[in-house]
Design goal:
The structure is a single chain. Strands 2, 3, 4, 5, 6, 9, 12 and 13 form an 8-stranded antiparallel β-sheet that branches. A 6-stranded mixed β-sheet has the order 1-11-10-7-8-14. A 4-stranded antiparallel β-sheet has the order 17-16-15-18. It has helices at residues 38-59, 63-83, 136-142, 148-153, 190-193, 198-207, 211-224, 313-317, 338-344, 353-378, 423-427, 435-455; strands at residues 3-11, 21-25, 29-36, 91-92, 94-101, 107-114, 118-123, 126-129, 173-178, 184-188, 231-240, 250-254, 260-265, 307-309, 381-386, 389-394, 406-414, 430-432. α1 (38-59) runs antiparallel to α2 (63-83) and α6 runs antiparallel to α7. The protein is an alpha+beta fold. The protein has 12 helices and 18 strands. The site of magnesium ion has 6 residues, from α5.
């Protein structure tokens, strides 16, 4: 029989305006989810993940049941994101541990993870990271393309390569943890691990006995270091384990078929009285990966201080994580345009509406210019002398840019039927605003001549 006691703490942090993290700490199930996808989407995704997980694991509290619970949570988030526009693209990390019966018939903690929230196991004087982050930087570290130090500051360290709810299916990493009395399990969102070093986490886990106070202390540490993200911590203490302290705790990776693989003793109990305490990798494990240096405390450290130790390469290499970039985090490939597709298929170009409009525009420019010139040249009338008669013309005298004046009215009034002093002006033309105005002007000149003639005394001619 295994007896557990847990503490949970979550905080909005000091830079965010909402808490998109979600935690769960029941009797036999513990979880941390870190939502993403905007204010609303992140909160919904992490809440749906945890609630679905709790219901599903309650129905089937087994290792296979935990995997199915993750699948159910993934489906619930994915379907909701398809239904609601405001939630499109939402997703979440999910790290969960459940107490169940292992394949050997003994109590075991089953651990599952998707994303970059983490699980650490403190056992036998060491704290080790069990989960492997599904982030772009960590994937490159695992593929030998980047060092751990580079990954810690790399701009891609927050880009997830796997998350819950961003696709119809999801791969889940699973482990069996054969825990012992005195072991302590930590689940946390990246709001803790981005702010607080694993050495400091180890110090708190060791020095603060009450799991609730330990969880709160870790959250406070994250806020004291900046609190740039939501931070959530679940601490689970194994008060009574099935095997007492007779055997070291064992961490085993579980394959997709549900079988544990390569169960290795992961820890070696530290000797508190002998000064520096080192993480000792299993002698049966393959060579340790370069990203996982052991951490050693100084000789004058407290004798019961625990040491942060990396997970051994055996756990990391049993099932190399695959790279599944969530769609919203990775820049999409540019789509082939219709023109590029037609060119690739050898389809001849066709005259489109756009081409026609362009041609019309090309033609409209000179046509418009001609219209303006024509309007200017013909928007004028003048009175002039034509073969001894007064006449009204439309246009500019002498023409304008090829548009010649047009004779509109050759009147019967001759130059001898207007007063002589009018003739010099008439020979230089007199502009009028219209044909009618020109005709009235001529009529007036003629009336003026008649009136003068009739008024003249006889014999004055
Ligand atoms: Mg976070």
């Amino acid at each position: 029989m295994t007896v557990l006691r847990s503490g949970v703490a979550t905080d909005i942090g000091r830079a965010r305006d909402s808490n998109e993290d979600r935690a769960s700490a029941g009797d036999n199930l513990f979880a941390v989810a870190d939502g993403m996808g905007g204010h609303l989407g992140g909160e919904v995704a992490s809440r749906v993940a945890v609630e679905t997980l709790e219901r599903a694991y309650e129905r089937t509290p087994t290792i296979a049941g935990l995997r199915e619970a993750f699948a159910a949570a993934n489906a619930a988030i994915w379907e909701q994101s398809l239904r609601v526009d405001e939630l499109r693209g939402m997703g979440t990390t999910l790290t969960a541990a459940g107490l169940t019966v292992g394949t050997d018939g003994r109590d075991v903690m089953c651990l599952a993870n998707v994303g970059d929230s983490r699980a650490y196991l403190m056992s036998g004087g060491m704290v080790r990271q069990v989960t492997a982050d599904h982030s772009l930087a960590e994937e490159r570290v695992r593929h030998g393309e980047m060092t751990e130090a580079e990954a810690e500051t790399h701009p891609h360290r927050h880009i997830l390569t796997r998350a819950l709810g961003v696709g119809p299916d999801v791969d889940v990493d699973l482990w069996e943890l054969h825990v012992q009395s005195g072991d302590r399990l930590l689940l946390c969102s990246d709001g803790l691990t981005n702010e607080v070093s694993v050495e400091q986490i180890s110090q708190v886990l060791h020095s603060v006995k009450d799991p609730r106070k330990a969880a709160r202390a870790l959250v406070d540490r994250a806020n004291a270091h900046g609190g740039s993200d939501n931070v959530t911590v679940v601490v689970v203490d194994v008060l009574v384990g099935e095997d007492g302290n007779a055997e070291p705790s064992v961490v085993s990776r579980v394959t997709a078929t549900g079988a544990p693989v390569g169960a290795l003793p992961e820890t070696t109990p530290a000797e508190p009285e002998t000064g520096p305490v080192q993480a000792v990798p299993s002698t049966t494990a393959p060579p340790v990966e370069p990203r996982a240096p052991a951490v050693t405390l100084p000789a004058n450290a407290a004798s019961d201080m625990f040491v942060a130790a990396p997970i051994t390469s055996a756990v990391r290499t049993l099932a190399p994580p695959e790279y599944h970039p969530p769609p919203k985090e990775v820049a999409p490939q540019p789509k082939e345009t219709r023109r590029q597709r037609r060119r690739r298929l050898g389809v001849p170009r066709r005259i489109t509406v756009r081409v026609v409009l362009f041609l019309l525009l090309i033609l409209a420019v000179p046509a418009g210019g001609i219209a303006v010139v024509r309007w200017y040249s013909m928007d004028n009338w003048y009175v002039a002398v034509d073969h001894g008669h007064l006449a009204v013309y439309q246009g500019r005298q002498g023409g304008f840019l090829g548009f010649k004046p047009k004779l509109l009215d050759l009147t019967g009034v001759t130059t001898t039927e207007v007063l002589p002093f009018r003739l010099p002006v008439l020979r230089q033309t007199v502009n009028e605003p219209s044909l009618g105005a020109g005709e009235r002007y001529i009529a007036n000149l003629h009336q003026e001549f008649i009136a003068q003639r009739d008024a003249a005394p006889l014999g004055s001619e």
